[in-house]
Amino acid sequence: GFACQQCSNKNSYGDNCKSECGCVNGECNNGPDGNGECYCQPPYTGPRCDQVSAACKNCSAYSHCKGVVENAVCQCLPGFHKTGDRCSGICSAKQCDVNADCSWLGGRLFQCQCKAGYKGDGRMCVPINPCDEDNGGCPRNSTVCVYTSPGKSRCDCMHGWEGSNLSSGCTLRNVCNDTTCHPNARCETGLDGYPRCLCNAQQIGDG
Predict the structure, then answer these.
(1) Which among 4, 26, 101, 123 is least buried, having the fewest CB atoms inside 10 angstroms?
(2) Is the entire prediction scored with pTM above 0.70?
(3) Residue 2 CB neighbours (<10 A)
């Protein structure tokens, strides 16, 4: 699940969250995939964020101070990018499923909504198969539902059935002709779409 991608201790990182960050005034690149780097809260800088840099006193929100004291610069935090003089959140596969629309709400908050034709919580979206519910709206006694793409399907006539308005159902196609059955038998189209030969009254046989 998503929770397994984080460490219970925010200062832990690496395999099995066994390593611990040494950030004093900053945020640790934590989690199983983290490397323990410190993202210093302005105006602090340095490997452990314990040095003050005048160059970082005016950093914008969602940024960190990076570099040696004299030459430190303001950079947007991971997951953010520069837009003018501000840092804005970046929607990525880490926030939402590839089949979801992502909106940045501020900070590290993102809203994920599955796109049309998909369902889920936005962080995981799966295709909707209309055929899974009520046969996709296709009449069950004469049509079959065919999945075509996420959220879309069509109705096809069953074998031996035909029709132009499939949402209303199909009718049996007449497959009988003069030579289908014996002259003393009558032909009927079965529900399976195949002809059946029935002997006339007072007659016996297979038709």
Answers:
(1) 4
(2) no
(3) 9
